Amino acid sequence: MSRTVLREALRTLTSKGLIESRPRVGTRVRPRHAWNLLDVDVLDWYSRVAEPMTFALKLQEMREMIEPYAAALAAASHGAETFDALETAHAAMVAARNVDEWVRADLRFHISVLAACSNELLIPLGTLIERTLEAQLRLNAKRAEVYNASLAEHTAVFEAIRTRDAAAAQQAMEGLLGVTRRRIEG
Questions:
Q1: Residue 99 vs residues 46, 125, 144: alpha-carbon distances, Å
Q2: What tens digit of pLDDT does each residue of 97-132 get?
Q3: What CATH number is attached to the domain comprising 96?
Q4: Are residues 63 and 100 in the same domain?
Q5: Which domain holds residue 119?
């Protein structure tokens, strides 16, 4: 490996908070609490080596903090374009014929909720967790008796957003995420 390639790799790992390099001291791996887990690559790498149940519960905690409020915001402030994307995702969930179709539609649904909330600081969270969320959704769909067992809960979220009922959207998303948590823990 050339020195240029090595330097670039070290620069990348440093920018992601994984290592630190100092003259006369050398290069060291930083403690896990110092890693930038809000970097798409680092989160993806971490999800592959972390204990699966622990990681799934941490991701679920993050979702429980963000998604109910995002659903309420989406109900209060969605535009025609973002609602159309949400409606398309919901229709794809209804039409899904297998686990793969369901997971793709489910992922689009949750990302569309974040986009519909009209808060540009929340929208990137969908991109950030997309890869890890897809794995979690796939696992949950396989753990359920039928892959689309949570369709009614998703429909409740969709209908509350459609009717612009922020309180109902928040409550419906909390219910949906409660089902998800029970599947993860069960």
A1: 25, 24, 11
A2: 998 999 999 999 999 999 999 888 888 888 777 777
A3: 1.20.120.530
A4: yes
A5: 51-185
Tell whether 65 and 126 lie within a shared domain. yes
Do 90 and 13 belong together in one domain? no
**Sign, CA torsion 32/60/103/129:** negative
Count of residues in the chain: 186
- C-alpha angle 162/111/176, rounded to 5°? 65
Are residues 98 and 159 both part of a single domain?
yes
> How far is it, in rounded angstroms, from Cα 66 to Cα 122?
8
Whether 101 contacts 57, CB under 8 Å? no
**What is the tens place of the pLDDT at every residue in 27-75?**
899 998 888 888 888 888 888 888 888 888 888 999 999 999 999 999 9
Which 3 state secondary structure label does DSSP give 19? strand
Q: Are 86 and 161 in contact (CB under 8 A)?
A: yes
Q: What angle do CA 87, 107, 59 make, to 5 degrees?
A: 135
Q: Do residue 175 and residue 91 come from a single domain?
A: yes
- Of 52, 47, 91, 67, nearest to 178 by C-alpha is 67
**Residue 144, pLDDT score:** 73
pLDDT for res 132 = 78
DSSP for residue 121: T
The reply to whether 42 falls in a domain is: no
